[in-house]
Amino acid sequence: MITKEMLVRFDELNRRKKDLEAELDKLKDMFHQYFDTAVGQNEKGEVKIDSYKLQRQIRRTEKFDPAPTVSKLEELNLLDLIQKRPDEGKIKSAVDLGLIKEADLEGCRISKTTAALLIKKLD
């Protein structure tokens, strides 16, 4: 059964959650600004303060941009490497086997960089 108290509690917790998320976002921005200044943008870093360690990890992902990749593969008559979108696994295998060169795929990759923060309490 749902009670008025449950609804009131949910509403209160939901408002507190939004406030906490906003405060966390501000702190994350400050940490990223610190690392951008201290070690450079999109660079990993670490700082220890008393019994805490703050680390920034950088993750990079690359994908093939569908339109130019499909166009390039059609131009190279490698239609078996195309599904509705470029088949990443088959393209990698074709590059590994020497059927296609990395240079042939120039301008086809999309790179994405994300930064993650990790705080540890040291013993």
The major pleated sheet works out as: 3 strands, antiparallel
Globally, the shape reads flat
- What is the C-alpha radius of gyration, as a whole number of Å? 23 Å
Instruction: Briefly note the structural class of the backbone.
Output: alpha+beta
How many discrete structural domains? 1
How many helical elements?
3
Total beta strand runs: 3
The residue ranges in which pLDDT falls below 50 over 5 or more consecutive positions are none
For the terminal residues, how far apart are their CA atoms? 45 Å
- What is the ordering of alpha helices and beta strands? HEEHHE
Strand proportion, as a percent range, falls in: 25-35%
Mean pLDDT: 89
Question: Strand order, biggest sheet?
Answer: 1-2-3
Measured as a percent range, the helix fraction is 40-55%
Report on this model:
The structure is a single chain. The chain has one domain. It is α+β, with helices and mostly antiparallel strands and 123 residues long. The chain has helices spanning 4-38, 66-75, 88-96, and strands at residues 45-49, 52-64, 109-121. It is 44% helix and 25% strand. The mean pLDDT is 89. It has a three-stranded antiparallel β-sheet with strand order 1-2-3.
Give a quick rundown of the structure.
The protein is of the alpha+beta class and 123 residues long.
Topology:
Elements: H1 4-38, E1 45-49, E2 52-64, H2 66-75, H3 88-96, E3 109-121
Antiparallel strand pairs: 1-2, 2-3
Keywords: Coiled coil
Coiled coil: 3-37
